[in-house]
Amino acid sequence: MNLAKRVKALTPSSTLAITAKANALKAEGHDVIALGAGEPDFNTPIHIIEHAEKAMREGGTKYTPAGGLLQLKNSIVRKLQQDQQLEYDPSEVIVTTGAKHALYSLFQVLLDEGDEVIVPTPYWVSYPEQVKLAGGKPVLVEGKEENGFKITPDQLEKSISENTKAMIINSPSNPTGAIYSEEELEALGKVCVEHDILIVSDEIYEKLTYFGEKHTSIAQLSEEIKKRTMIINGVSKSHSMTGWRIGYAVGDRDIIQAMTNLASHSTSNPTSIAQYGAIAAYDGPQEPLQEMKEAFEGRLNKVYDELVQIPGFKCEKPKGAFYLFPNVTEAVRLTRFESVDKWVEAILEYEKVALVPGSGFGSPDNVRLSYATSLEVLEEALDRIRSFMEKHQ
Ligand code: PLP
Questions:
Q1: pTM of whole model > 0.95?
Q2: Are residues 122 and 173 in the same domain?
Q3: Aminotransferase class I/classII large domain: which residues (predicted)?
């Protein structure tokens, strides 16, 4: 069958691809360590599970409104008020099947053929693909390694054309863990206001900031910026609920209404049971989040210190999310591989450690390692990488 043009150009998610490869090797009986996963290794806090169970027994198993339960929208509005001092009305919120689908729907309702979206590199793998699926054109702007992988207002200004409709900002970032400061966000926000561009602020790693760093939503910085910002967030990373598939978008009421109309013809609604779980996530105790964050911070300290000792690995210490994104060009050169992709393949083949090549994030000199796995496993992975480097030099 001849497939539609728009999906022929689609690149499969490199993170899911490497996880699939690692799983296939595991199924063959190999002892594989997968550092590709983008999800916390903790189980969902028990009070959330219990609340969802109760909802199921009490009949919360039916269709909900397409844009989500009003009770959950209210919880999200309260969360934004408490955490970011941002005021929204529930009509400015849509609950979606994960943050990924919030972004997908947003680009579907926003973009016409040829509209441009500014995507800073390194980017989360799905941004450019989702923009293209909606007929748009991703315009890549390099977040330079020497600038902590962040783009500057000057770069943003220069990448704007008459077709620019939106820009994406992801802080803390997947894959780099970089966090934009208030001043940096304000400067970028100003440019977007001047050019009347929508800011898509993906805040899915909001709760995972370390060493006293604090997350700021760009929407907090002025009323003018807030008017043009669509916040994307959800419970996947914050509450260790990746499989529940609950995310949300908050912003301009007309855009939210269009996304809701689209949902009414595509998903109908996010899973009812998971929505009840998300209510408990936002309204219930937040202590488990702190515990997870402390565990991640401890691992980051340990893994970072060891990683930068490996010959050829160059890495700034990330401040958020749960990834390290070292530049490995020197490691690849030392082991005489022709590219980072080939080197990553060899590490999986010889040492059974799955890393994600940076090419999928628009940054071919780097690899992404997730430290969302136990310290014991991380130590073993580092031993294997060290051993690979020794054997191949
Ligand atoms: N945005 C970023 C930057 C992510 O890393 C991810 C997940 O990996 C998502 C969005 C999607 O999150 P969800 O699981 O809620 O769809």
A1: yes
A2: yes
A3: 31-385
**Residue reference for tokens 């890495």:** 315
Residue 54 lies in a domain: no
Give the pLDDT band (50/70/90) at residue 16: confident
Nearest to 359 by CA among 336, 333, 343, 341: 341
The DSSP letter of residue 13 is: P
Pocket of ligand 1 (CB under 6 A): 38, 98-100, 124, 170, 174, 202, 204, 234, 236, 242, 247
Query: What whole-number percentage of the chain has pLDDT above 90?
Result: 92
Question: How high is the pLDDT of residue 283?
Answer: 98
What is the pLDDT, as a whole number, of residue 13?
72
In a domain, 48, yes or no: no
Spatial distance between the Cα atoms of 74 and 282, rounded to a whole number of angstroms: 10
Contact between residue 249 and residue 41 where contact means Cβ atoms under 8 Å apart: no
CATH of the domain at 152: 3.40.640.10
- In the chain the beta strands, taken as DSSP E runs, fall at 33-34, 93-96, 116-121, 137-142, 164-170, 198-202, 229-234, 247-250, 323-324, 353-354, 356-357, 367-370
**252 with 339, same domain?**
no
Same domain assignment for residues 92 and 175: yes
End-of-domain residue from the set 262, 283, 304: 283
Does 268 lie in the same domain as 362? Answer: no
Q: Are residues 233 and 140 in the same domain?
A: yes
Spatial distance between the Cα atoms of 239 and 157, rounded to a whole number of angstroms: 36
Strand order in the sheet with 323-324: 323-324, 367-370, 356-357
Please report which confidence band the pLDDT of residue 8 belongs to, taking 50, 70 and 90 as the band edges. confident
Report whether pLDDT(14) > 80. Answer: no
The atom of ligand 1 lying closest to the CA of 101 is: 16
Query: For residues 143 and 117, is the Cβ–Cβ distance under 8 A?
Result: no
The enclosing domain of 297 has a CATH number of 3.90.1150.10
For residue 369, give the DSSP letter: E
Residue 54 CB partners (closer than 8 Å, separation 6+):
276
Tell whether 183 and 261 lie within a shared domain: yes
| Number of domains the chain contains | 2
Distance 38 CA to ligand 1 centre (A): 8
- Ligand 1 nearest-atom number relative to CA 39: 8
